[in-house]
Amino acid sequence: MIGKLTGRIEYRAADHILIDVRGVGYLVFCSERTLAGLPAVGEVAALYTDLLVREDLMQLFGFTTLAEKEWHRLLTSVQGVGAKASLAILGALGPDGVSRAIALGDWNAVKVAKGVGPKIAQRVVLDLKDKAPSVMAMGGTVAEALGEQPAEVVETPVKRKAPAPASNASAQSEALSALSNLGYAPGDAAGAVAQAAGDAPDAETPALIRAALKLLAPKE
After folding, report:
1. Domain Holliday junction DNA helicase RuvA C-terminal: where (predicted)?
2. Is 208 within 8 Å of 200 (Cβ atoms)?
3. Which residue in 83, 163, 192, 197 could disulfide with 212, CB within 3.0 to 4.6 Å?
4. Using the 8-state DSSP alphabet, how is residue 109 labeled?
5. How far apart are the first and last CA of the chain?
């Protein structure tokens, strides 16, 4: 099983890249969001990968975080959701957005992905709602995947893109852990944290915990 690749991007297409790893070229399919965040041709990138093997097909799919990879695995386990639909959902929402939509039961958010209709969107939310807490808890564990390159690769001098704004995935993970330690059910805690993070995307852990606790407080 190929779980991670680090190498130089040889070329980019609309839905995949060719990445050269020590002289071996790998075609890796990615979501639009992931492709947009990768460096330019000639630069080094690191991707977690998932290998699809069928009788007549072998394809690699690439992800910049373990949470994105795990959501892809879970999404493709839902009846009617193939790899193309999974990448469309991740491309439209990102892993944090998928976590938030599923934790909140917001199938309308899932439906915005190209090629995903209402029935499939509802099935995704219903089938994966209990999985949201565990994937959200993965936030902040994969910083080493971004910008990592092997020492023997000499990078071609090219202008780099400005780094993408950091998400608060780590803060969500820490807030979820804190609420779980306080005795809240994983599903309830995940829903509250997801809603709080949606209201304040840049909030740090203490602010997320306070906002989530307000949402979880009994309504008078």
Report:
1. 171-217
2. yes
3. 192
4. H
5. 53
Is 141 inside any structural domain?
no
SS3 150: coil
Supply angle C-alpha 58, 62, 68, rounded to 5. Answer: 125
Complete DSSP assignment for 163-185 = PPPPPSHHHHHHHHHHHHHTT--
The residue range of the domain holding 129 is: 66-136
Report the interhelical angle of 118-128 vs 66-75 (nearest 10°). Answer: 110
In terms of Cβ atoms closer than 10 Å to its own Cβ (0-12, 13-18, 19+), residue 187 is: middle
Residue 146 lies in a domain: no
**CA–CA gap between residue 180 and residue 164 (Å, rounded):** 30
Q: b or e along 194-220 (b: 16 or more beta carbons within 10 Å of the residue's beta carbon)?
A: bbbbbeeeebebebbbebbbebbeeee
Ramachandran region, residue 115 (left: φ > 0; alpha: ψ -120 to 50; beta: rest):
left
C-alpha closest to that of 195 among 213, 219, 220, 183: 213
Number of folded domains that form the chain = 3
Instruction: Give me Rg for the CA atoms of the chain.
Output: 18
- 62-96 pLDDT tens trace: 999 988 999 999 999 999 999 999 999 999 999 88
Which residue shows structure tokens 């290998």?
Answer: 51
